[in-house]
Amino acid sequence: MSSSITSASYAPAAPASPWGQRVRQIANVIVQVLALSALWLLAAWMQTRWHVPMPASLLGLLLLTGLLFTGVVKTGWIRQGANWLLSEMLLFFVPAVLAVVNHPELLHSQGWRVCTVIGLSTVAVMVVTAFVVDVVYKFELKLARRRSNRHV
Amino acid sequence: MSDSLLAAFCFVLTIALYYANKRIYDRSLHVILMPLLLTPAILIAIVLLADIPYQDYMADSHWLMWLLGPATIAFALPIYDNRAMVRKHWLSISAGVIAAVITSVVSSVMLARWLGLSVMLQKGLAVRSVTTPFAIEAAKSMGGPADLAAVFVVITGVLGMAIGETVLACLPMIRSRLAHGAIFGAAAHGAGTAKARQIGEVQGVVASLVMMTAGLISVLAAPLIGHLFF
């Protein structure tokens, strides 16, 4: 399933047609998305079966991360499917936004207040995060420097 | 039109609009044309003008939302790919994430109360800065409105993408690429991560790591948040 090995490299006389390659690529994405969906269903089943105190999505994420780190699952098996899911994620929550039609009050009277909260809070989160990460990053650099000095 | 035909039409329309919108946005990169903003706006206009019942719209389109589950699991791949960065900067990333989640929840709830918004809306707003699948989980476990949480997440993403660079321009003393990337992942989840990727590769990776960790922490902390604030 590895995409780095193309049929063309083995049969230079008859290179795969661009259409054939495209079809194979799409088939890979579909199979891998189905595999990731199966893993998600498994995680959901495990979560209800054993009453795991965390959401199924989180359990599935930890499960797959563990499988990747232990080498049970190779990244090539899921890369194309995972990349597709991650890059098209915006499409998946477009229907979620349609929920506004059930809350007409949001479109009218409360809309500006909700947007004020979101806008001010977003700026606050950005400013605080920037300072905290910057300070701890400088601390990390200092630690690393001290560690390398000790070796000298 | 029969109900099932209408549902199928809405499903196809959603996908077609999204891909058409994406093509236009890739050419201009203008905030107004973001697929996250324009596609839902057009769809809402169509649904309201044509008087399409929400249930009919959702009948088929909820399968798109279902894919958010597998998409969450897919985050394991970038975590694994960026394990070197995680090992090197786990301290600054986790410090940033904790600061971001606390700031986000406290400022959202306080501002919402100050402006007199209902408890339901406060709960939905509390978790709006993390990526949708996690925000929905977190909102559910607080007894908040999952559908509205998703809407607030989207608004946050669009706003964060639009103002991130202006905020950074106002903070000239912050120069590390790590901090520059972190603000986008912390404040504006997936949309911010896409923006950070446009600025630079390191910024993009940091943003996605911060986004994922913030999502995890929010889901795990949601019962505590519910207990402390509501």
Can you walk me through this structure?
The complex is a heterodimer of chains A (152) and B (230). Chain A has 152 residues and is mainly alpha-helical. Chain A has two domains: 1-87; 99-152. Chain A has helices spanning 7-10, 18-49, 56-69, 75-87, 89-97, 104-107, 111-151. In chain A, α2 packs across α3 (56-69) and α2 (18-49) packs across α4 (75-87). Chain A is extended. At the A-B interface, α2, α3, α4, α5 and α7 of A face α1, α2, α3, α4 and α5 of B.
Global mean pLDDT of chain B: 89
**Roughly what fraction of the amino acids of chain B lie in strands?**
under 5%
- Number of spatially distinct domains of chain B: 2
What general outline of chain A do the C-alpha atoms trace?
extended
* Unreliable stretches covering 5 or more consecutive residues of chain A: 1-13
> For the largest interface in this structure, which chains are involved and how many residues does each contribute?
A-B, 72 and 97 residues
What is the β-strand count of chain A? 0
In terms of structural class, how would the helical and strand content of chain A be classed?
A: mainly alpha
State the major sheet of chain B.
none
> Helix count of chain A, per DSSP?
7
Give the helix tally of chain B: 11
- The general outline of chain B is globular
Residues in helix, % of chain B: over 70%
Task: Give the distance, in angstroms, between the N- and C-terminal Cα atoms of chain B.
Answer: 45 Å
